[in-house]
Amino acid sequence: MSDAGGRPYRAIPGPSVMPEEVLRAMHRTAPNIYAGEVVDLTESLIPDLRRVARTEGHATIYIANGHGAWEASLANVAGPGDKVLVPATGRFGLGWAEIAETLGVEVELIDFGRQTPIDPNRVEEALRADTDRRIKAVLATHVDTSTSIRNDVAAVRKAIDAAGHPALLMADCIASMACDRFEMDAWGADVAVAASQKGFMVPPGLGFVFFNERAAAVRAAMPRVSRYWDWRLRSEPEMFYHYFGGTAPTHHIYGLRAALDMIHAEGIEAVWARHERLAGAIWAACEVWGQAGALRLNVADMAFRSHAVTSLGLNAPDGTRLRQWLEANAGVTLGIGLGMATEEDPNGDGYFRIGHMGHVNAHMVLGVLGAMEAGLSALGIPHETGAVDAAARALAAG
Fold first, then answer.
1. 259-283 pLDDT, tens per residue?
2. What span, in angstroms and rounded, lies between the C-alpha atoms of 197 and 253?
3. In whole angstroms, what is the distance from residue 205 CA to residue 185 CA?
4. Do 227 and 209 contact (CB within 8 A), yes or no?
5. Measured between alpha carbons, how far is 67 from 229 in angstroms, rounded to an integer?
6. How many CB atoms lie within 10 A of CB 310?
7. Quick one: angle between helices 362-378 and 268-289, nearest 10?
8. Do residues 99 and 74 make contact, with C-beta atoms less than 8 angstroms apart?
9. Cβ neighbours of residue 338 under 8 Å, at least 6 residues apart?
10. Residue spans of beta strands (DSSP E) within 74-132
């Protein structure tokens, strides 16, 4: 078989599928970067970004991927000799910690592994033990894209408050924003980071950092911050180029404007509900497949599963075999088992991920699941039948 007769589908956890509206908005000649439409468009993005993050605080845009947003957020609140607490639940929590270390920041790590969410009690214990109050921030990953664990950010806030600790709560929402419910102000996050290539449905290249007045006060007390990473001019620009620390990312601006229009036309509550329904259909299918085979959901408790990405395991090397079959024979690309290597499976060949974020609907999800069932059958990987029916019933039930 070949996918030459149809459109391939990248069911990976970012970059996500870009809507035609976004692509059309970006398909234009370069605009004037000093005056006119692009200036007005940029100014319109800020309040609409805040609406997605559910905050009355500040929103800033960096020409960067998610790793750049990590560094931007840290550069404004912590420097050499400072300390942060990182409760990690996968590769991306560990990655944020690594960025902190490269800035000379001391990291206290609580590694919860790859199947267990953050335990707020352990966060509280660590903060109570910090009697000299050296920890400046807790870096919590809302959704870890590698493990698909969704953490309770509000519970982490309660743990910080219960310890009576002044640490900021910083949330990595790169995989979750505009997919999973996130309430920055209501949940007590002081800083949130996101990026353009997942729920925002725009090509990689924009990083977003949201911060409140508590975080702004910490920034004001910093002895120095790199001019490029400094969020003060970006959040209160004196001239247009201050929004981006230089030349504007013109075509990304047009794409983001179109994407935000789509998100707000649907309504953020409806966006969250759609992702929840589609994730439930995928879980229903996977649970059926696993009844007579090795396929398993990485996160056992659905209360802690992401609605944007699902991490799954098979006996190695069947995860890689299934991905390769789907790409070659069905035009479907699944995500690799990033960060899931073990001593027994050093290349992570037993794991893969389904991305279901952003511009996605029922027929796209059912198509991926049908292709996966064909792949499982073609490769002789043991599985129970009827998974796609189970997914359809889940969707029909709403």
1. 999 999 999 999 999 999 999 999 9
2. 13
3. 26
4. no
5. 13
6. 23
7. 20
8. yes
9. 91, 145, 146, 348, 353
10. 83-88, 106-111
